[in-house]
Design goal:
By secondary structure, the chain is of the alpha+beta class. The protein has 30 helices and 34 strands.
Length: 948
């Protein structure tokens, strides 16, 4: 049935998609016979807390939202912010003759469609409408060829959701009790965090090795040109036939690897300089020239993870920002569905790409036959096609009318897709070996490598980036002089070069995505949200583009490894993914599998009781890779909270992760010589060396007794507080601290020019005397000088005026204050402060990016978009690339939503009305509690600790 207004005359069709943007685009293709509405994500989910669970459920069901004793039956509820939308959908359905469920074609989209069926309970014909691009032809074809709901996909998604809920809601409370409140654990997020922590452990254990070699510049004696240079640079490769040691020959302990120890020559500085001196007057000649053909094939079209990696390398986007921009491109009909494991292109797409190759580059760049790409992802299932420009004719970036981040990402996808259907790049690679005899008789051999590309092929359209910023890209040529064996060369310069091995690089978002995919952990479509979660939870922070684990994550991973080893085991997590895919294919049943995971091996046959005792070592044992989560979280007696959060630094110093942050400690509290100092939360763990820890302990900390207040007699002390140094008075013992008669000690923050170890008693008493009464104006209104959150200021009634310096709080006179108030109050912004740092030109807005000092701390801006620096970023260390990434993430989020102030005022206007409103809300909650309805995806994602 063709979806035209004529065919729709026989009835009214309701089409439901996930997002309003998608609904708007599709509506334009269907005509007046169709009503297109959005569910706005998930309409149902597991409850976020016991308050949302219907009253008929008790005990563990209220806590988990899953009835583990009755086949893991989930309790679904409609979240409060989706009830109005559900009501609207029901009203639209009541006026319709057919229902088309047009949610995304992956497992999550299938689950949303199923939840819609369960909640709306349609009495009209229902069709499942699927498509992977939003074009006129694709939408009309989807309406004309609907299918049935795929219950296997629904079951697989539901199993994942239940599994993640059990994992999160059972393991997270263990972290609350043993590490810190409000932490979370997740099936994939905890494993991803462990990867980042393990890389940091490798960096901490790493010992650098020093090695030296020589670099020679050799001249042919001819006049050179672009195709035949007159000289080449070569590096020392061997001495008397023994290969000179390079970085790859050393282990992480700084020693030569056993395989290299007897085979290579390890040059130190003295030996390298002696060899260079011995070669000073040596004669050099070409020993050999080896030429090989070079061929490079195009890269496969994008799938979700390769798009995230390349957008990170080329555009500076984080995984989350990439998916947000891609979502907008998909919903507006520019690209195909962006959550896919497939690298396949449809015949239509191949034809479109080949047509553009001929049109833009000529027939010489078009291979005789279309290229096909085999999928490399195990159990690929998310969609049927790679990410590509939509339609049967690809729009060039210039034809789209896009701008900013959307233009740049579309251009990346378009180039990659077109390049995938172009010819190979071909050329030659050459290795030249140069030999010379030193004055002491040693034979020294230098090597130089070159590459020339004779036909660029697909590289005319696209070249892939690299995670290593020092890596050479595929299209880079290195031309060497045209020399032959035996040709004499002149050594113009021989230099001595020292090198040191480097610790393994920290993960970036791109390399972590690649690592997770290679280990087959989790689903590629969830990686962006997983990385976002571990950043938001404070387990990881960024320094530039590098992902740095916090000390908190060390404590969390330490606990999980020691007591829930299997749950964060990489192979175990990958095996779980295989099992879930088996359920999706109908090769396994969900309930028996969940029983084994939760109650232990044998639970599928014998129930919960039969599993007792069989999962005692489920965290670290052998045998069945599922088993015994419930038993693991029940017995917590063996977990020593202090031991879990303690890490030796050296020299008797221990790093501990406390409830209020990390700190270093020497000795035990209460013992003589005990020392303790807070550790900056943005300090990378591999930077906390024994020397650094000693510096922290040596810094003045604790209380500094300044003397007694001559008026009150109370002791005055200076302290280093969590929010900065301050002075306070010590009240006598027995002074009530709570209740109606409670007495609060006087307290004042130090000025920026003061520190706890130098502030005097006189300074402290002056600070605690604030606010200071400056005087009164002609109408008798008092003027005071006060120190506030945003600096020193004057206050007269409700009128505040900023002061220029903190010292003015004590020196400003009444006349000066009146003069300030006589000036018109500045509306809007004050004079702009000079930037703290210039970063360069933003590749999206093409405007200069600077770092400024704002009301809430430093931020980056291009004059259009502002983004606050995150934990781990600093004005001194932030790179241009990191600045561009922060701006890209902020743009992807879109403008902040404004709150409806009128409604607040109306409620607050009358106390009686406010009480009635509250009463109605409470009643509404009770009514909702008696219905089996469901939570919206967005709310669940932000509140539920059971996410992957």
């Amino acid at each position: 049935m063709s979806p035209t207004s004529e065919t729709a005359q026989g009835g009214r069709r309701l089409v439901i998609v996930e997002s309003p943007a998608k609904a708007k685009t599709i509506k334009g293709y269907l005509g007046p016979g169709y009503v297109v509405e959005a569910s706005v994500g998930h309409i149902r989910d597991l409850p976020n807390g016991a308050a949302e669970v219907p009253e008929k459920y008790t005990g563990e069901v209220r806590r988990l939202g899953v009835d583990v004793e009755h086949d893991f039956q989930p309790v679904y509820v409609v979240n409060a912010d989706k009830k109005a939308q559900v009501r609207k959908l029901k009203e639209q359905l009541a006026q319709s003759d057919e229902l088309f469920l047009a949610t995304d074609e992956d497992r999550e989209g299938e689950a949303i469609a199923w939840h819609l069926l369960e909640v709306l309970k349609p009495k009209v014909p229902v069709h499942r409408m699927v498509f992977h691009e939003i074009t006129k032809d694709a939408i009309r074809a989807a309406v004309a060829n609907p299918r049935e709901l795929n219950q296997r996909m629904v079951d697989a998604q539901e199993t994942r959701r239940i599994l993640d809920r059990l994992y999160g809601y059972e393991v997270s409370p263990v972290l609350w009790k043993k590490v810190m409140p409000k932490l979370s654990a997740g099936r994939v997020q905890s494993v991803a965090t462990r990867l980042v922590v393990e890389r940091e452990r490798e960096r901490i254990a790493f010992r650098s090795a020093e090695y030296w070699d020589l670099t020679g510049t050799f001249a042919t004696g001819r006049t050179g040109d672009a195709s035949d240079p007159s000289s080449l640079t070569a590096r020392l490769a061997s001495v008397d036939g023994r290969r000179v040691a390079q970085g790859r020959d050393f282990g992480s302990d700084g020693q030569l690897k056993s395989a290299s120890a007897g085979q290579v020559l390890h040059l130190d500085e003295a030996n390298a300089r002696a060899l260079a001196a011995a070669l000073e007057n040596a004669a050099f000649a070409v020993r050999s020239v080896e030429s090989k053909p070079y061929r490079r094939s195009p890269y496969a079209p994008f799938r979700t993870t390769t798009l995230q990696q390349e957008a990170s390398r080329k555009l500076g986007f984080g995984a989350k920002a990439t998916m947000q921009v891609a979502q907008k491109l998909y919903e507006n009909g520019f690209i195909t569905y962006m959550r896919t494991d497939s690298t396949t292109l449809s015949d239509t797409a191949v034809a479109a790409a080949r047509a553009q190759v001929t049109q833009l580059y000529g027939a010489d760049y078009l291979p005789d036959r279309p290229r096909t790409y085999a999928g490399k992802v195990k159990n690929a299932q998310e969609a049927h096609e790679a990410i590509r420009p939509s339609g049967d004719r690809f729009r060039t970036p210039a034809e789209t009318g896009l701008s900013g981040d959307q233009f740049r990402l579309y251009e990346l996808i378009w180039k990659r897709t077109v390049a995938s259907q172009m010819k190979d790049a071909v050329g030659n690679s050459v290795t030249v070996r140069i030999a010379g005899t030193a004055s002491d008789g040693r034979d020294a051999e230098f090597t130089a490598s070159g590459k020339t590309i004779t036909f660029h092929g697909f590289m005319k359209a696209y070249v892939e980036g690299a995670d290593d910023p020092n890596a050479e890209l595929d299209d880079r040529e290195r031309r060497l002089p045209q020399v032959g064996e035996g040709d004499a060369l002149r050594a113009d310069e021989i230099t001595v070069d020292g090198h040191a091995t480097k610790p393994p690089a920290r993960y970036t978002e791109a390399s972590l995505v690649k690592e997770l995919e290679e280990r087959e952990i989790g689903r590629p479509s969830t990686y962006a949200s997983i990385i976002g979660t571990i950043l938001d939870r404070g387990y990881v922070f960024k320094k530039g583009t590098a992902l740095v684990p916090s000390f908190l994550s060390f404590a969390v991973v330490n606990l999980l490894e020691k007591h829930f080893g299997r749950l964060v085991d990489y192979d175990f997590t990958a095996k779980m993914e295989d099992d879930l895919d088996c359920i999706a294919r109908g090769e396994a049943q969900a309930v028996p599998w969940l029983k084994r995971f939760y109650f232990g091996e044998g639970a599928a046959a014998g129930g919960a009781a039969a599993a007792e005792g069989s999962a005692a070592d489920a965290g670290n044992g052998d045998g069945d890779h599922l088993g015994g989560l419930k038993a693991l979280v029940t017995d917590l007696g063996a977990i020593d909270a202090r031991e879990i959060s303690s890490f030796p630094v050296g020299e008797g110093i221990v790093l501990r992760v406390g409830r209020y942050g990390p700190y270093v400690e020497r000795g035990e509290k209460g013992e003589e010589g005990h020392q303790r100092a807070d550790v900056p939360e943005d300090l990378a763990p591999d930077e906390l060396t024994p020397e650094h820890a000693e510096e922290l302990l040596a810094k003045p900390s604790g209380d500094f007794a300044l003397g007694k207040d001559p008026v009150s007699g109370h002791e005055i002390v200076a302290k280093a507080g969590r929010y900065g140094p301050y002075v306070t008075e010590v009240l006598p013992e027995g002074t009530p601290k709570t209740g109606k008669n409670a007495v609060k000690p006087r307290t004042a923050s130090l000025f920026k020019t003061m520190s706890p170890d130098t502030v005097t008693l006189e300074d402290a008493l002056r600070l605690m005397s604030l606010p200071r009464v400056v005087g009164t104006d002609g109408e008798g209104v008092e003027i005071t000088a006060q120190n506030g959150r945003y600096g020193p200021y004057l206050k007269k009634g409700t009128d505040s005026r900023s002061l220029e310096t903190e010292e003015q709080l004590f020196t400003i006179t009444l006349e000066q204050a009146l003069a300030i108030y006589a000036q018109p109050k500045q509306r809007g912004r004050a004079a702009a402060k000079p930037p703290l740092k210039e970063l360069g030109t933003d590749p999206v807005s093409e405007r200069p990016v600077v770092v400024k000092d704002g009301r809430f701390g430093p931020y980056v801006t291009d004059g259009e978009t502002n983004a606050t620096l995150r934990t781990g970023d600093s004005v001194e260390t932030i790179t241009p690339e990191r600045g561009y990434e922060l701006l890209a993430e902020k743009r992807a989020k879109g403008p902040a939503k404004k709150t409806a102030k009128k409604a607040v005022k109306k409620t607050a206007a009358k106390k009686t009305v406010a009480k009635k409103t509250v009463a109605k809300k409470t009643a509404a909650k009770k009514t909702a509690a008696k219905k089996t309805t469901a939570t919206a995806k967005k709310t669940a994602a932000s509140k539920t600790s059971a996410d992957e």
